[in-house]
Specification:
This protein is an all-alpha fold and 432 residues long. Helices cover 64% and strands 1% of the residues.
Length: 432
Amino acid sequence: MKKNYFKFPGLVLVLLLAGTQSIFAQETAEVDTGVTSWMLTSTALVLLMVPGLAMFYGGMVRTKNVLGTMMHSFVAMGIMAVLWIVLGYAMSFGNNVLGGWFGWNSDYFFLRGIDNNITSSGIPEYVFSMFQGKFAIITPALIAGAFAERVSFKGYVVFIAVWGILVYNPLCHWVWAEGGFLFKMGAIDFAGGTVVHISAGVSGLVAALYLGGRRGHPKTAMPPSNLVMTMMGAGLLWVGWFGFNAGSSVSSGLSTAQALTATQAAAASGAIVWMIVEGFHQGKSTALGFASGILAGLVAVTPAAGVVQPAGAIALGAIASIVCYMAIIMKNKLGYDDSLDAFGVHGVGGIVGAIFLVFFMRGEHSFSEVMSQLGVQALAVGIAIVYAAVMTLILVVVINKTVGLRSNERDEMKGMDSSYHGEHGYGMLNLG
């Protein structure tokens, strides 16, 4: 579990730019080549999820918005990576400042003080930093699915940059840094149920509600442009998720194998259950439904991968699939436009996983222990929801009124590809 590897000094420094010794620095430590090799692989697998997400989202939007939608994922690979190196790592894993709102360590500013550092896990600190940085990349990219096809590119770029600094970094610090208050409370989030999926899903919902639906929604048909690409994207996400979850053990051993197995079990369970439910409810099992079930299972097991056995992972995948399916049905009845179900799958699935994991934890636990952990999990989920919602609302209001976040009617009807990028995804003009 990530949080087991963060060794902070006992003395908490509160000066923002105070020079401190790296929390991971161990000059006499030696590199464990086995663990390092796995963490390098995991880092690459998590990055693979970003183009996978681009394909998953890109195939679900209309032809005129394919490139614009995929750019939402790809541009995050650039912007969030630079911000992570400059200050994201320092804010997430530094010592508490401003009452623990976020962290700071001047050695982490531009990663300037970790050049020769080896962590207690036997990996170069650069590797750990880059692994964590991939989470900072994909989280704001997930949000884009909620308001797809109706935001300006410039506004989106500003939004994810500021959101990463003010929402992601503090949440990451609270949950995964040893000084974080949710860490101290014992909140379980093995690989990002609260930090990644709940924060992204809730933020996406808030932004979608504030910006309003796509023009013509729900009366105008808005068919997916390429479900083949969506299925390929879902497959890449499944593969990349092994690095996402199993890599979060920050080791190469028993806990790694446990997390990897739980990931496989939950993804498969979620896909199968969604297919069955949809078959009974709609009369047909769709490819998009199967892909959605994969993600529901993967999202739900993310916070739980290090604490549940395969049977528990199967149960979480099944529960999440059913609840997420119901959430999407409810969305359609309520009429709000969460374009690609960022909240319906990631937000709802993350909540299900973070809460229900307490009933499937390995080992013997008394009823009082389970209830106590349930209270901690519920509190962590509630804090993540409220913080992400409030901060996102502030950001979308300010950015929309200054830079401009919602597309104007002309640009939206023309399509993001042409309006913001001067290109067409399939080499032809197709506004369908």
